[in-house]
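Section 5.1 Outputs to date
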Amino acid sequence: EEGIIEGEVQAAQRILVEIVSRRYPDLREMAQQKAARTKSVDALSEVIGLLFVAPSEEMVRFILTTPPAA
């Protein structure tokens, strides 16, 4: 079970980085850092959802630098 969860986390981390890289290539490193800091599938899913609807690069930067809600 732990291996399955780890695999899901890694897949979500890759998706997060890919979404940002395709829209804003200059923010790839920032996305990689956010992905590495985020270890929960639920938190990663929330970030990915926000990135899908982010209307601007400024909002994407904000999402990537804001800590997850407690």
